[in-house]
Amino acid sequence: MQRGDGWVQRCVTLDKAGWENQPVALSDAWAQGLRMVKSLTSHQPGRAIALKLAAIALFTGLAAIIKATSDVVPAGEAVFFRSFFAIPVILIWLTLRGELLHGLKTNRPGGHFLRGILGTTAMGMTFMGLGMLPLPEVTAIGYATPIFTLILAAVLLGERIRLIRISAVTIGLVGVLVMLWPRLGSGNLGDTATLGAILILIATVARGLVQIHIRRMVMTEHTAAIVFYFSLTASLLSLCTLPFGWVWPDPTTLVLLISAGLVGGVAQILVTSSYRFAPASMLAPYDYSSMLFAILLGYIWFNELPTLVMLIGSGLVIAGNVLVIWRESRLGLERGMARSVTDPKA
User: Fold this and answer.
1) Terminal CA-to-CA distance of the chain, rounded, Å?
2) How many Cα atoms within 13 Å fall on the side-chain side of residue 141?
3) Closest CA to 21 of 10, 34, 12
4) CA gap 259, 261 in Å, rounded
């Protein structure tokens, strides 16, 4: 074995993400991933943070738009507008970057379809939950995604979880229980808010599955292709809900829905671009600025305020996530490629 191949094998063994079961050469797949990172990355932390914060603000604004239209527009229709009208933005971006061919070329169409099913399910359930819960609460429950990703990686991929990450998972799950207890503790599963909490929790688990799936996909697929084909697949899958209550929106609602797609497309570009200028471990803590944006928009737009219980629970989840981020940075596990092609609602 050559020195380069040995280095690649050690990297795969370190991550334990299950790539050894892929029907591609490990050295070729890993080298492609490294080339992608190298070609797209230069260290400009200030620029990276600004891009990430702008993306988070836009994603939170997108969620607020969907919430504002949820009384009249069903979730499936909202998913269509969010996905379909993001496609022109993504295509223009890929064309300007000279990556249009990368965005259309794929070696794993089935992988994109599965990612589309998981992501569309997560997005649809999140959009339903937005109509039932305050915006800050939806945001807080969504913070549990990295915790569920870690659990699912251990169960499905055999990743080893040692004491520090076990502690992080425990802290995070306690935080989730604290946030959900006011909704689930009553035992009234027919309550709208309780149903909303359940939907958001299921969506959070689905996003954990998406993260695991994308970890595999980035080894053979360009990030541009993952971004483009998700929007395309989600648009097509959302049409399956057409017989279930779609409405013809009034002009104001139509403008909001189209804006959601455009905003989502721009936000996706910004978050993807941010990982070109700084490592994921440095940018990950800024994800939690979404709570500030959610509280601000929730108060101004919907007259909502977070409860003390929700803030305590979200604080515990954030603490668990920060512990995971710190541990993965110490182990050298870089999740930037996977994080750069997902948005918080899919």
Assistant:
1) 40
2) 28
3) 12
4) 5
Position 131, amino acid: G
Rg of the Cα atoms in the chain: 20
Give the separation between CA 341 and CA 226, rounded to whole angstroms.
Answer: 7
* pLDDT over 60 at 17, yes or no: no
For the residues of 95-111, what is the DSSP string, one character each?
HHTT-HHHHH--S-HHH
Q: Write the pLDDT tens digit of every residue in 34-84.
A: 444 444 456 778 888 899 999 999 999 999 999 999 999 999 999 999 999
| Distance from C-alpha of 205 to C-alpha of 26, rounded to nearest angstrom | 28
- With beta carbons less than 8 A apart as the criterion, state whether 270 and 54 touch: yes
pLDDT, position 160: 78
Tokens of 38: 């190298």
Kindly give, in sequence order, each residue whose CB lies less than 8 Å from that of residue 333, ignoring residues fewer than 6 positions away: 14, 15
* 3-state secondary structure (DSSP) of residue 342: coil
User: Each residue of 115-161: pLDDT tens digit?
Assistant: 999 999 999 999 999 999 999 999 999 999 888 988 888 888 887 77
Nearest Cα to Cα of residue 273 among 7, 78, 58, 68:
58
